[in-house]
Task: structure prediction
Amino acid sequence: MSKYPTEQELDDSKKFTEFLSKVAFRATNDLRKHLKIDELNFRFAAPFSQNKSKDVYLYRVLDEVQKAGVSIQLWQEYLSDPKGGEKVEEQLERVLFESIIDDQSFRARKLVETLVELICFSQTDEEIYYRDFFLLRDLHESIQAQEDRKEFYAFESSNTNYSIEITSEAIRQLEQNGLDPKRRWYLQKPEALNSTWAKNGFRFSSFRTRYKKIVSLCLPSEFTAIGKSYIHAYGMSKDIHFTADDNSHNFEKAEAWRGISRVGLLCVALVVRCQISLNIVPEGINKHLREMHDSNTVPQSLIDESKAEKVMTGDFVWAWGDLAEVVESKTSTYGFRSYNIRYLNTPPISSIKEDSFASGQIKLFLTRKRAEGILDRMLSGLDFPEAERAHIISLIPKNRDEALKDVAKSAWKAHAAIKAAKNSPQAKTPSES
Result:
């Protein structure tokens, strides 16, 4: 079990939570004032019947941010004193922490879905598409309810059939008044109203499809908050659904604290995206948040790093703790780089001599050009012990490439020895010990 946070860490976390609370409640309330809808109409009138369907949509988005704010406050309160002053057995303590982590996974997943959907709407940010979205949602629910009745109870509801007809006609009217069916990103197959939908149903686009769409649309801060791939963005499913094979072998308390940050950053991203959608930045916490957001260059630098060519073919790299040579580089459809490497020392799995890594998973250890320079200097007897020098030099006439690999291995060995010496108890002063 990992240790509880220090007093300083608890204090920093408390300040961060207080800031997130301002974002979740004060910022959302200030933005809500600019929506042409009140609580009464929101609760008791269908979204597609409102004059401003977009405002209804954003009203619900702001609700989700506030729900997350409530959860963040509860998590912070519990995690600051999880035992409540009482001794709790290890198994129960783990379950208590995992219950928090499960809650965070649920909340994060819902916020990610909301943010991805909101970013997609930036390409159809017109009242007619928000109204169409709500109508299609209503139609889909009616069709599914009818299918459920037929399968489990062998009957159909005439009232529901009437509702399906009325909703379908409303959708048809939108298509006649300028809506382009091909822009329906929210459908698995963007097309015009189909007469077979009432009988066979239709599908909304999957999260994966939407995620692929927003990679080129989202802000750097949104991309880092959502996740750098589909798995990172939606991989919390394992914490939402029951999985008996999860034996909690990798459980750690710190994950609960990280969960607060993840949910909090998603809240910030949603508030900023709502500001962009409304083209409004209210004074106060909203303006302060936006200034912080716009001046933060870290998210963009992280994306740039994932796309930059950090190493060249033939360079020697650190790959998750192992020395390797780069044999090939690739660039994905989205511009992200990966590298195929060949292990130079004993591989983590002996039968796997080569592997591939994302750009952020490797670090340059020694450029090929630098290795060439070291090899040439060896001829003068510098830098390496005589035995190693003689062995490497003997390889040059036969296979210079193999000699370069041995240079990298020797440099790696020397680097490890220096690092071990620095970390040894004998190298530490009494104060450091």
